[in-house]
Amino acid sequence: MKAPLIFEIKGNSLDDGAGIRSVVFFKGCPLACIWCHNPEGMRTGVEIAFDQRECIGCNTCIETCLQHALARDNPFFIDRQRCTLCFLCTEACPSGALDRVGREMTKEAILEKVLKDKPFYDTSGGGVTLSGGEPTLYMDSVSALLQALKTHGIHCLLETCGQFDLERFTTLVYPYLDAIYYDIKLFDPEEHKRFCGVTNATILANFVELIELTRADGKEFLPRVPLVPNITDSDANLGAIAAFLQSHRVTKAKLLPYNPLWPEKSSKVGIGTDSLDASMKKWMGSEKIKHCESIFREHDLDV
Known about the structure:
Blueprint: E1 5-13, E2 21-26, E3 47-50, H1 60-64, H2 88-92, E4 98-101, E5 103-104, H3 107-115, H4 118-124, E6 127-132, H5 139-151, E7 155-160, H6 166-172, E8 179-183, H7 189-196, H8 201-217, E9 220-226, H9 235-247, E10 254-256, H10 262-268, H11 286-297
Parallel strand pairs: 2-6, 6-7, 7-8, 8-9, 9-10
Antiparallel strand pairs: 1-2, 1-5, 3-4
Helix pairs in contact: 3-5
């Protein structure tokens, strides 16, 4: 079994499920959302990130690079066509401005990391959350990890975009989960393809099956909608999603307020954001968030 690529394990999280949690971020995603809040987790391979704020301008990395892939006049500093991912620059960088994104981690290595925080899970009602990227790209590895976590009595939650093979999921992953947070971004299939790279046919079909399965099994299943200015936050889109949830007897959902910090993270891994609308570069106002919530409440949804 090939070890999955992990780009971060974040402890002491209070935003990814009940209680105090550790969040394991898997690298790679079947979607390509233009507003991805974890852009360093989108691609399936390892990468090098460059943080201009941490750079002290010593040029040690430039002198170290055998491929001449680093240059101050490059808007992203790294020429990713030249770069062979030898990581000599990351090893030479004294400030940590250059860093490897994505490392293969075995089940044992992940367990060693998260089990250190088990006392916090036990006292707060927390646990381990699998996020990304998209964890279901690594179903065999995720299954083994979840089974190991359950032997330690740890609450397991999955955050997913829903773009996966349902049969494999229900066999390998679902039995070992206590909760699923399931994202629905856009209801119109063509709009979903335009902004996320694929249609939402599989996502919505999987949702319909899983809402019934989790309801029968008594597992937590929480639909989530990210609010993205001028993309997902329209009355038409939110109304369509709310009506869809209501039609499947869903009574609770979560709206994720927009966070404009992702463009800076994108530039670190060489993803340009110069063409972004100005509204996507600032925080969403409280009045707009309240308006979005009101649309869901009109459909008898607790948000």
